[in-house]
Amino acid sequence: MGHAEMAQTVRELSGVIFEFGEARLVNAAKLGDRDAAERLVELTYAAVYASLYRMCHGDADLAADLTQDTYRKAWEALAGFDGRSKLSTWLYRIAYTTFLNHVRRPDRNVELDEGSIEVNDPAPSIEDTIGKSEESSMLREAVLALPDELRYTVTAHYWGEVPIPEIARQEKITAVAIRKRLRKACMLLEAAMMESRQS
């Protein structure tokens, strides 16, 4: 067995060992083991937060809030997790739905009465801080305007870094179908971007 083959075997074994460990932790958490639940959060938090951070276009506070909502919803629904997909994929789906619910929620600005004090924040805005460009904003809007199945596939793969085979398992379709969705979405996004630039 050559070095490359051995390295591949070790990676595959590591994945099997992790999945076995993940299943054990999920079962323990379902039975109320707080340490197992905390370990699952440790293993998945960075990926869930990072995907929400990208969906929120770099708004760290919003991403943190949505991450908390994601885990709250996940623990409430943990008994229904059947293990057909990886826990991280299941969590990503919850995070994605949480994000969409936030985007669809009407703005809840509260008017202040006339006697209140006006406070100017001297700190640069989020847009200035992260250098939010008009182009990336247009792309984000174009992604959010995609049909649901395409939007989920694009955000899961590109923003959530979920592998194509895992998305296919979650969606109960083939990896080829997922690749077709990605191609179709990219064509639609390209057309939307060209239209936005022209207007």
Average pLDDT for all residues? 79
Instruction: List SSEs in N-to-C order.
Output: HHHHHHHHH
Count of distinct strands: 0
- Roughly how many Å apart are the termini? 59 Å
SS element count, helices: 9
Number of separate structural domains: 2
- What oligomeric assembly is this protein in? single chain
CATH architecture of the largest domain: Orthogonal Bundle
The CATH topology label of the largest domain is Rna Polymerase Sigma Factor, Chain: A
Shape: globular
By CATH reckoning, the class of the largest domain would read Mainly Alpha
Question: Which percent bin holds the helix content?
Answer: over 70%
Q: Going by CATH, what is the homologous superfamily of the largest domain?
A: RNA polymerase sigma factor, region 2, helix turn helix motif
Strand percentage, roughly?
Answer: under 5%
Radius of gyration: 20 Å
Low-confidence segments, given as residue ranges, are 9-18
| Class from helix and strand fractions | mainly alpha
- Largest sheet: number of strands, sense, barrel closure: none
Structure explained in plain terms:
There is one protein chain. By secondary structure, this protein is mainly alpha-helical. Residues 9-18 have low confidence and may be disordered. It is globular, with a radius of gyration of 20 Å. The chain has helices at residues 3-30, 34-55, 60-77, 87-104, 126-130, 134-144, 148-159, 164-171, 175-198. Helix 2 (34-55) packs across helix 4. The relative contact order is 0.09.
